[in-house]
Amino acid sequence: MADKTKPEIDFIEGPAPTELVSTDIEVGDGAEATPGARVTVHYVGVDFETGEEFDSSWNRGESIEFPLNGLVRGWQEGIPGMKVGGRRQLVCPPAWAYGPAGGGHRLSGRTLVFVIDLLGVA
């Protein structure tokens, strides 16, 4: 995994999806993430509409570890099934991210695109 670099997220043409869209960029061969697992990941997040990056563990220079059940629905449902060493893109409509506009989060109402590298599962 040490040879991976921060992914570039290509602009996605067309209308934003209304359901979670999960695409494996690279399939891993390690342990598989299960619902509710504790995962260690590197990720980049961009706004679907603008392509503007809003968050990246790569920019902080370190991966992050957390329980899946504490995350947005798109991650809770989009990461299980991934194997360590894999890279997956998740396109999360508002219902799968931070909810509808006016929901109190700065990204409420936005469709978000994440590229996630699964580094570990506990």
UniProtKB/TrEMBL annotation:
GO terms for molecular function: peptidyl-prolyl cis-trans isomerase activity. This is Peptidyl-prolyl cis-trans isomerase. Pfam families: FKBP_C. InterPro entries: PPIase_dom_sf, PPIase_FKBP_dom. SUPFAM superfamilies: FKBP-like (SSF54534). It comes from the Bacteria. Gene3D superfamilies: 3.10.50.40. Its EC number is 5.2.1.8. It catalyses: [protein]-peptidylproline (omega=180) = [protein]-peptidylproline (omega=0). It comes from Pseudolysinimonas yzui. The keyword Ribosomal protein does not apply. Belongs to the FKBP-type PPIase family. Keywords: Isomerase, Rotamase.
